[in-house]
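Letters spell out the chain; backbone shape is given numerically. Take this protein:
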Amino acid sequence: MPIDAAKALAAEPRTGEIAWDRRDVQLYHLGIGAGVPATDPDELRYTLESRLHVLPSFATVAGSGSPGVISGLSMPGVEVDLARVLHGGQRLEIHRPLPVEGRATATGRIAGVYDKGKAAVLVMRTEVADADGPLWTNDAQIFVRGEGGWGGDRGPSARLDPPAGDPDKEVERAVREDQALLYRLSGDYNPLHADPEFAKSAGFDRPILHGLCTYGITLKAVVDTLLDGDVSRVRGYATRFAGVVFPGETLRICMWRGEGAVRVAVSAVQRDDAPVLADTVVEHA
């Protein structure tokens, strides 16, 4: 079996130094659609160096751009075909606001290997700290088609009960035709998002948008709409990737307020509101 669960879980953590600067932050923000309209004061907080703040989802690309997915596939006990791999979900815990420029130590390990029957799920956990202490913890759920069925632990369920009632807020966000090409410059160069032939080999008609790009677009919408544009209020952010997005589509982002949290559902408008992000929660102060 290409995935050896015991070996993967027992492997020594990998530790490395990462660094980022304001240019990396600005490029990430542009990659998730910030800067429209270009002179809007609220957008300048994402694009202009003199006003810059950092959307917490930048943590998924800071210093490396390989959001736990590519790095997880190179861990001991894991040997799989990249064309069978999908990003199943993401969980981010923010310990304190992200600085515009920084150097930190990232420690990564496989924190879970689950048998879903027709697929395996790997949980790649990355913990990042700088000289002042912990910054964030990032869990990437890696879905590997065709690698389940060995009788292992199915793992916890990420499914939540649907939010009650109509959403408190609903916004639409257009995805540019070149959004994936721009987003991948933050470091995630998986050819699934750019190469039509590779996308076909993976079962898609054309390249799809990075799930983490949709993840960032969605968090920005929540911060701008319900959190007064204050990125420092975000404490945690979790989602399950329920479907794909194609560049050029429009996202419908529905939000429900709760005590210390916002529930979110995201769908693709042009495909009869096909689900894109589900079981999504933004925890906040």
In short: The helical segments are 5-10, 22-31, 41-47, 69-72, 179-183, 196-201, 211-226. The chain is about 20% helix and 35% strand. The longest helix spans residues 211-226. The mean pLDDT is 93.
